[in-house]
């Protein structure tokens, strides 16, 4: 495996996995605490609809998927804020619409689309330097927005009190939705539409089982999300199985261990 890590494509795969694991886990803590775990799936399918549209228009799928998923994320937040519908209902509506649009766009494209299959199931070993640059820029954006973490945590645990303290809770909701959409879109090529929700939810859920404070939960989730990447890649290389699946199963194993130790 050490020899494999000397190969450029394996180095890119490892770096991409670490970036995706860290970013998704960081936001996943807020997603899990706000009981929005279905949001990852909804935005993943919105990203796939955007990818399908990009392939149909013969444009770079990532640059079409980003505004598409951002629009869906903001619409989900708007519906949640403007109606009495539950979060799961609002997400479910746009989940269904995104799937329908993805199927429609793919049906309009002639012939078999192996590149679309790669986005469905992920292809971490084909990550390009450009993909890494996009992920790096997103990581930099997260660092710049790190001072907002306290406000996000405050609104997560007591939204009404945060509103009473005149915090811009609604604007933060839209910002968080947009950030989650961005992370999901740039992660789709790494782990795929089918598995990206696991990167958002499982490390955060595991951290919740073993952490006493929200800050500790955030740090633990990031560690779990990143440290599960290397064992997953090792398993994928050794057993010749898909890397995304191996990483998610590693995360699931850690969740199972945390659950067993909690008992």
TrEMBL record:
One of its GO terms (biological process) is transmembrane transport. It is a multi-pass membrane protein. It is found in: Cell membrane; Membrane. Gene3D superfamilies: ABC transporter involved in vitamin B12 uptake, BtuC. Its main location: membrane. Pfam families: ABC-3. InterPro entries: ABC_BtuC-like, ABC_TroCD. Keywords: Membrane, Transmembrane, Transmembrane helix, Transport. The chain crosses the membrane at residues 12-32, 38-57, 62-79, 91-112, 175-202, 214-237, 243-261. GO terms for cellular component: ATP-binding cassette (ABC) transporter complex. Belongs to the ABC-3 integral membrane protein family. This is High-affinity zinc uptake system membrane protein ZnuB. It comes from Meiothermus taiwanensis. The gene is znuB.
